[in-house]
Amino acid sequence: VLTHDGTDFDWAAAAGGGKILQVAYTVDSGPTTTTDNSDSYVTTGVDLNITPSATSSKIFLTWNHIFYHPTANNNEIKMTFFRDATQLGDCILHMTNSWIPAAMGYVDEPSSVSQITYAAYFKSAQGATVYGANSGYNAVLTAWEIDGS
To answer: How far is Cα 134 from Cα 28, in angstroms, rounded to an integer?
Structure first.
């Protein structure tokens, strides 16, 4: 890279970290539904595998989905990611009788060079039937491996 020390220009090696090392993604067009009275997350069926190239790598996850909650009084949906069996953060959507696009992001630091499965889960917070995806709408899960050195 070209650098400048305040007086002169010079060439130097690029600093480490922040580079995208690989991207894995999956697209699902099939609808998913859940009726959840147990307050437990269920899989959307949207998952992917990625094998980090270094233990210092970070994995930036993005998930784009569309949901429908048909009950006006029970209008809360929760979304989350899982790394294998470990839950990673979550978010809440509040909605009323309509399809709504949703997106979630998360930065994971798995400290592993073994294959990891990431999956998108959701639940109805009040026990009503919730629909995820729909014909004509895709759910997309993407994992970006970022150099953490």
So the answer is: 10
